[in-house]
Design goal:
Blueprint (H helix, E strand, L loop, with lengths): L1 H9 L2 H45 L5
Protein name: Flp/Fap pilin component
Organism: Roseivivax jejudonensis
Keywords: Membrane, Transmembrane, Transmembrane helix
Length: 62
Amino acid sequence: MIKFLKNFRKDEAGAVTVDWVVLTAAVVGLAIAAYSTIQSNATDLVGRAGTGMLTGSGVSYD
């Protein structure tokens, strides 16, 4: 039993899996943050472009 516990403690096969899980979670988190930022800025840009086109053409759609 003690030999089994010593071998189990020395085994590092699962440590690589944990590293990959942590790295993957970090990449997914960064992707979500980037998507959120890009989406909100793109929406703002489209809104400003539409407003500029409406006011610049002299046509009012009120």
